[in-house]
Amino acid sequence: MYSKFLLSSLFILATIGLNAQATFLGKSIKSVSLSLSHDRDLLSSMDNAYFTDAMKTPSDNSVLTEKFSDAQVASMVCENPNMNLNIVLELPRQLEWSLGVNAIISRYDALSYSSTSDSNWGFDYANFSTTADEFGIETSLVKRISLSAYRNKLGNSPINLYVGAGTNIGVIVNNKLYAYGSNQSMVEDFTYTNSSQLRSEVEENTQVPFYSSSIFFNDFNEEVKLNGGFSQRIYGQLGIGFTIARRFEIGLQGKYGVGYRVIKGADTKKTTLESVGLTMKWLLN
User: Among 217, 189, 219, 218, which Cα is nearest to 203's?
Assistant: First the structure.
């Protein structure tokens, strides 16, 4: 999925780059920007009920729907691999208006609960891992601050500082829960980079049912489809860029902000965004 988004982004970048006088909304396009970042979209609170409330089909699995205590939380993960493609419009006074699209593929939100003396699970950890995709749009207003008196033939400084703020909103799709019991693995053993391994582990490795204290537990090893939703964030951003060729700039960018996430059936959650990423720009002027 990311490869398709990347190829599409490069095609758009190349198409716009062929026209050095390109405009959009009556404004001159300063650059086309592609960024790859690692985000953490931290939920204000997270428990297994947040996941199970969003299930498309209710489950009668006693462990899946069990009420856990916060003291049982053994591990918690929130990871967002993020890709953005933006066109940057030039405004007066070295202001830049960025408009673009973003994709989060295989966002990973998960937590593990440890067993207690009266759990009677037959395993040490109850794990709840969700993966989802998000596709959205974003906009930001940024001040470009030149850090060098030198200018190249396009009039650009070799080093620029970027300070600004923005917002994005996206639709959440392909939302799934992988719930499984284990004596060894916790959710931190899986991320968006090996989500396919997680899926195969849950689908292929069925737990053996057991009998204890007159209670029979079904296999705790399930893949469950969750409802979709949407998410929005408002953030401040700070970045630095280095012009390494006349029309190419590479840099680092950080974002910090707040937002909310809405999933059908589950409580609306406040979120805190923490993001660090690599930016690449093709300069048109």
Answer: 219
Of 143, 133, 80, the C-alpha closest to 274 is 80
The three-state secondary structure class of 202 is: helix
In angstroms, rounded to a whole number, what is the distance separating the alpha carbons of residues 258 and 140?
A: 15
Q: Contact at 8 Å (CB) between 107 and 226?
A: no
Contacts of 4 (CB under 8 A, 6+ apart): none
Query: What's the per-residue H, E or C state across 3-63?
Result: HHHHHHHHHHHHHHHCCCCCEECCEEEEEEEEEEEEEEEEECCCCHHHHHCCECCCCCCCC
Q: Where are the beta strands (DSSP E) in 115-228?
A: 125-146, 159-182, 210-212, 215-217, 221-225
Q: Between the CA of residue 259 and those of 26, 42, 103, 139, 235, what are the distances in Å?
A: 31, 10, 17, 15, 8
**At 210, which amino acid appears?**
F
Q: pLDDT 10s per residue in the chain (285 long)?
A: 555 555 555 555 555 555 556 777 778 888 999 999 989 999 999 999 999 999 998 877 777 778 888 899 999 999 888 999 999 999 999 999 999 999 998 899 999 999 887 777 777 888 999 999 999 999 999 999 999 888 887 778 899 999 999 999 999 999 999 888 888 788 888 877 777 777 776 766 554 444 333 333 345 788 889 999 999 999 999 999 999 888 899 999 999 999 999 999 999 999 999 999 999 998 887
Q: Could you give phi then psi for residue 57, rounded to 5 degrees?
A: -125, 125
253: nearest Cα among 235, 236, 272, 278: 278
